[in-house]
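haha ok so turns out i had the wrong file open the whole time. this is the CORRECT one, sorry everyone. sequence first:
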Amino acid sequence: MRPSGLSLLTALVIVSLAGCAQPRREFPRGMLCHPTYVVGTLYCHDLPDAVSAGPSEMTGGHRAGDYPDLQVGAIRCPDRAGDFIPRVLVLNATATAAGPFDVVVDFALETVNPSTNRPESMRFSVTRRVLGVPGNTRVPVDFGGLTIPVIENDTLTISVTVDPALVAPDWLLWGKVNETDETNNSDSRQCDPVP
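then structure:
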């Protein structure tokens, strides 16, 4: 008897979960590992020495001392139909400068196909590198010429995570930048239908 697609999927999920349940000691110390889009696969790379030493003292995602505090400063929505150029500002809300970090931006576009008059969804994610942010400053995220074609009545939701959290072998690594508040790095905006 041939196994059904659901049986194969269930077996794949169980094998993947079993792989996640392996003891953490099997991951080499000083490596950062996070899931990839391939089920059951981890992507690993070396951590900088300053990070692999371990996290700073922190309680509930908050850290005392002179650290930056990265936040989503602003998310721009389309104001008319046509090629929309996304604009996201990252804010450093303290006087301490932040070093390089990533920004992950998820786009969810709900539209109606003009040919079929049926609703369609388009979702994609972009990760961009920010080289740093001086204290008490907002900087734009460079999308490298990305444009999103929008038509009348499209709805766009933009979700942004600044310095996203990653999982390291022996601890939760909050991101590449140690911050005073690691809990305020995400924001989302559901844009009004395009006029």
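Residues 5-20 form the longest helix (16 residues).
again sry for the mixup
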